[in-house]
Amino acid sequence: VIDVRGINFLHLKNQERIRAMAFDKDNCLTAPYVPSIHPPFEKAWVECKDAFGRDNIRSLVEKKTGVPVLRHAEKKPSGGADLAAHLKGIPAHQVAMVGDRLLTDIVFGNLNGNYTIWTRHIVTEEGDNKAALVVIFLIDMGRGWQERLQNG
Fold it and tell me: What predicted TM-score, i.e. pTM, was given to this entire model?
Protein backbone atom coordinates (compact mmCIF):
# COMPACT_ATOMS: atom_id res chain seq x y z
CA VAL A 1 0.00 0.00 0.00
CA ILE A 2 1.07 3.61 -0.35
CA ASP A 3 0.62 4.31 3.38
CA VAL A 4 -1.59 3.25 6.30
CA ARG A 5 -4.58 5.03 4.78
CA GLY A 6 -4.62 2.31 2.11
CA ILE A 7 -5.15 -0.49 4.63
CA ASN A 8 -8.69 -1.80 4.93
CA PHE A 9 -8.67 -2.84 8.59
CA LEU A 10 -12.17 -4.33 8.57
CA HIS A 11 -11.26 -6.47 5.56
CA LEU A 12 -8.15 -7.72 7.36
CA LYS A 13 -10.20 -8.64 10.39
CA ASN A 14 -13.24 -10.11 8.68
CA GLN A 15 -11.85 -11.61 5.45
CA GLU A 16 -8.21 -12.36 6.22
CA ARG A 17 -8.95 -13.42 9.82
CA ILE A 18 -6.30 -11.09 11.25
CA ARG A 19 -6.75 -10.68 15.01
CA ALA A 20 -3.92 -8.28 15.88
CA MET A 21 -1.80 -5.55 14.30
CA ALA A 22 1.86 -4.63 14.81
CA PHE A 23 3.28 -1.38 13.45
CA ASP A 24 6.72 0.01 12.88
CA LYS A 25 7.07 3.61 14.02
CA ASP A 26 9.13 5.89 11.80
CA ASN A 27 7.74 6.56 8.32
CA CYS A 28 4.84 4.20 8.89
CA LEU A 29 2.73 5.94 11.53
CA THR A 30 4.90 8.95 12.36
CA ALA A 31 7.56 11.17 10.94
CA PRO A 32 11.03 10.02 12.05
CA TYR A 33 11.66 10.56 15.75
CA VAL A 34 8.24 12.18 16.28
CA PRO A 35 6.19 10.60 19.10
CA SER A 36 2.71 11.22 17.69
CA ILE A 37 0.72 9.94 14.72
CA HIS A 38 1.35 11.82 11.46
CA PRO A 39 -1.80 14.03 11.15
CA PRO A 40 -2.94 12.68 7.73
CA PHE A 41 -2.91 9.15 9.23
CA GLU A 42 -5.07 9.89 12.29
CA LYS A 43 -8.34 8.72 10.69
CA ALA A 44 -6.77 5.41 9.60
CA TRP A 45 -5.31 4.98 13.10
CA VAL A 46 -8.77 5.41 14.65
CA GLU A 47 -10.18 2.89 12.15
CA CYS A 48 -7.48 0.40 13.16
CA LYS A 49 -8.19 0.84 16.87
CA ASP A 50 -11.94 0.52 16.24
CA ALA A 51 -11.47 -2.70 14.26
CA PHE A 52 -8.94 -4.47 16.49
CA GLY A 53 -9.23 -2.83 19.88
CA ARG A 54 -6.40 -1.18 21.74
CA ASP A 55 -5.15 -4.42 23.34
CA ASN A 56 -4.66 -6.17 19.99
CA ILE A 57 -2.39 -3.51 18.51
CA ARG A 58 1.31 -3.13 19.22
CA SER A 59 3.47 -0.27 18.15
CA LEU A 60 7.06 0.82 18.38
CA VAL A 61 5.76 4.36 18.81
CA GLU A 62 5.45 6.34 22.03
CA LYS A 63 2.46 6.18 24.35
CA LYS A 64 0.71 9.12 22.66
CA THR A 65 -0.88 6.63 20.24
CA GLY A 66 -3.09 5.09 22.91
CA VAL A 67 -1.92 1.50 22.34
CA PRO A 68 0.66 -0.62 24.18
CA VAL A 69 4.24 -0.08 23.12
CA LEU A 70 6.27 -3.10 22.03
CA ARG A 71 9.74 -2.88 23.49
CA HIS A 72 12.01 -5.46 21.93
CA ALA A 73 15.46 -6.49 23.07
CA GLU A 74 16.70 -7.39 19.58
CA LYS A 75 16.76 -5.24 16.45
CA LYS A 76 14.49 -6.25 13.59
CA PRO A 77 14.37 -8.55 11.78
CA SER A 78 15.05 -10.45 15.04
CA GLY A 79 12.78 -10.10 18.04
CA GLY A 80 9.71 -12.07 17.04
CA ALA A 81 9.51 -13.73 20.45
CA ASP A 82 8.88 -10.32 22.01
CA LEU A 83 5.90 -9.69 19.74
CA ALA A 84 4.52 -13.18 20.39
CA ALA A 85 4.84 -12.63 24.15
CA HIS A 86 2.87 -9.39 23.93
CA LEU A 87 0.11 -11.04 21.90
CA LYS A 88 -0.28 -14.18 23.98
CA GLY A 89 -2.69 -16.67 22.49
CA ILE A 90 -2.86 -15.11 19.02
CA PRO A 91 -1.21 -17.31 16.38
CA ALA A 92 1.50 -15.59 14.35
CA HIS A 93 -0.41 -16.00 11.06
CA GLN A 94 -3.25 -13.94 12.56
CA VAL A 95 -0.99 -10.96 13.27
CA ALA A 96 -0.37 -8.34 10.56
CA MET A 97 2.99 -6.57 10.64
CA VAL A 98 2.95 -3.14 8.98
CA GLY A 99 6.21 -1.44 8.07
CA ASP A 100 8.01 0.72 5.57
CA ARG A 101 11.30 -1.17 5.29
CA LEU A 102 11.54 -4.41 3.37
CA LEU A 103 14.80 -5.58 4.94
CA THR A 104 13.71 -5.08 8.54
CA ASP A 105 9.96 -4.72 9.08
CA ILE A 106 8.71 -6.98 6.30
CA VAL A 107 11.46 -9.58 6.76
CA PHE A 108 10.64 -9.52 10.50
CA GLY A 109 7.00 -10.29 9.77
CA ASN A 110 7.80 -12.99 7.22
CA LEU A 111 10.34 -14.71 9.49
CA ASN A 112 7.75 -14.82 12.25
CA GLY A 113 4.85 -16.07 10.15
CA ASN A 114 2.92 -12.79 10.20
CA TYR A 115 0.77 -11.34 7.44
CA THR A 116 2.89 -8.44 6.17
CA ILE A 117 1.92 -5.05 4.75
CA TRP A 118 4.55 -2.82 3.20
CA THR A 119 3.87 0.92 3.28
CA ARG A 120 5.88 2.48 0.46
CA HIS A 121 5.48 6.19 1.20
CA ILE A 122 8.07 7.95 3.36
CA VAL A 123 6.38 10.40 5.72
CA THR A 124 9.37 12.76 5.65
CA GLU A 125 13.01 12.65 4.73
CA GLU A 126 14.06 15.08 7.46
CA GLY A 127 16.13 13.30 10.11
CA ASP A 128 15.71 9.85 8.58
CA ASN A 129 18.39 7.26 8.06
CA LYS A 130 20.11 8.23 4.80
CA ALA A 131 21.01 4.65 3.88
CA ALA A 132 17.37 3.64 4.25
CA LEU A 133 16.33 6.49 1.95
CA VAL A 134 18.75 5.25 -0.71
CA VAL A 135 17.35 1.70 -0.48
CA ILE A 136 13.78 2.99 -0.78
CA PHE A 137 14.79 5.15 -3.76
CA LEU A 138 16.36 2.12 -5.49
CA ILE A 139 13.28 -0.01 -4.81
CA ASP A 140 11.06 2.69 -6.32
CA MET A 141 13.33 2.91 -9.38
CA GLY A 142 13.19 -0.87 -9.79
CA ARG A 143 9.40 -0.81 -9.52
CA GLY A 144 9.26 1.84 -12.26
CA TRP A 145 11.48 -0.23 -14.55
CA GLN A 146 9.42 -3.34 -13.88
CA GLU A 147 6.20 -1.52 -14.76
CA ARG A 148 7.71 -0.18 -18.01
CA LEU A 149 8.87 -3.67 -19.01
CA GLN A 150 5.47 -5.19 -18.26
CA ASN A 151 3.62 -2.48 -20.19
CA GLY A 152 5.95 -2.67 -23.17
Answer: 0.76
